[in-house]
Amino acid sequence: MDAAQQEATARARELQRNWYGEPLGALFRRLIDDLGLNQARLAGVLGLSAPMLSQLMSGQRAKIGNPAVVQRVQLLQDLAGQVADGSVSAAEATERMEEIKKSQGGSVLSNTTQTTSSSGAPTVKRVVREIQSLLRSVAAAGDIIEAADTLAPSHPELAEFLRVYGAGRTSDAVAHYQSHQS
Questions:
Q1: 119, 156 Cβ separation under 8 angstroms
Q2: Is the pTM here over 0.70, yes or no?
Q3: Integer Cα distance of 28 and 10 in angstroms
Q4: Three-state DSSP class for residue 122
Q5: Could you tell me where the Polar residues compositional bias lies (predicted)?
Q6: How far is CA 10 from CA 5, 67, 129, in A?
Q7: Average pLDDT rounded to a whole number, residues 104-128
Q8: What is the rounded distance in angstroms from the CA atom of residue 125 to the CA atom of residue 115?
């Protein structure tokens, strides 16, 4: 990839971060992991071609042009949260994905995704993901680590928070979150 292509990809990922809260590659990989999908199946549920999904994930293309696809992304994010908190089984998730595939929605993706379990309480994993998404929408992981290194001598707890939530794995952030609850 030449310098112009790298710059275009970096710009597309930055636009995705602004529009969707994070680069679509990260968002789609999380959906694939959480819902037990592969790229072809995710593309099918969203109503995208496999090459289009690949272009969005790699940053060759910045924006999802079809509002119905954007709506399906949000519905899948909500479903992934319900699977993560145990309120929806794998079998139910498969059924819901078929419903999502058929949906014709038209709203835009927002940062007001469902963050509650069936009891109305936010799930730990969803709270952690919101924190991660917010931090990662502000700065790249390398910049967050650099900021953490700068803060570490005088504010080690803040530095740890930045490292764990800004550049760490979701499972480590969940453990951190749980260890700091009273």
A1: no
A2: no
A3: 17
A4: strand
A5: 104-121
A6: 9, 23, 22
A7: 54
A8: 9
